[in-house]
Specification:
CATH class: Alpha Beta
Order of helices and strands: EEEHEHHHEHH
Strand order of the largest sheet: 3-2-1-4-5
Distance between the termini: 47 Å
CATH topology: Nucleotidyltransferase, domain 5
Number of strands: 5
CATH superfamily: Ribonuclease H-like superfamily/Ribonuclease H
Amino acid sequence: MSSNGHQLIIYTDGSSRGNPGPGGFGAILMWGDKRKEISAGYRRTTNNRMELLAVITALESLTKKNIPLTIYTDSQYIVKAIQERWLDKWIKTNFAGGKKNKDLWLRFYKLAKDYQITFKWVKGHADNPFNNRCDVLATTAADGKNLLIDEEYEREMTNL
């Protein structure tokens, strides 16, 4: 805990209808009794990209740097990539072997340097109200109109 008794808590979730398919993400940022919700939908993407984009967008929305924060996610992909140091290996090898989502992982890596981040895994679709709310934000965004374009993903799929 920081000296004022508050720590920034972030919950994130990503969703895609089909993998790939339309997708969305949701994030809730909590500081004391303050709450901020963020979400967006994309016309063609993957679940892992939306999980990552939820984390990235939450971090990009912060105005203070070098603060401790805890990110709760139901994505084993994200938690293991950080805690088991997969990401460090991927960066050292320039994502050799067809490792996916290089654009988003590099964006996250650069952002993460400015914070003291602890990742915690939570079981998805269970009894955590904040994770469940993020799921609603993500799926509602995925099902919405005027979906954004995940440009890097669509460019990669076109170039295969």
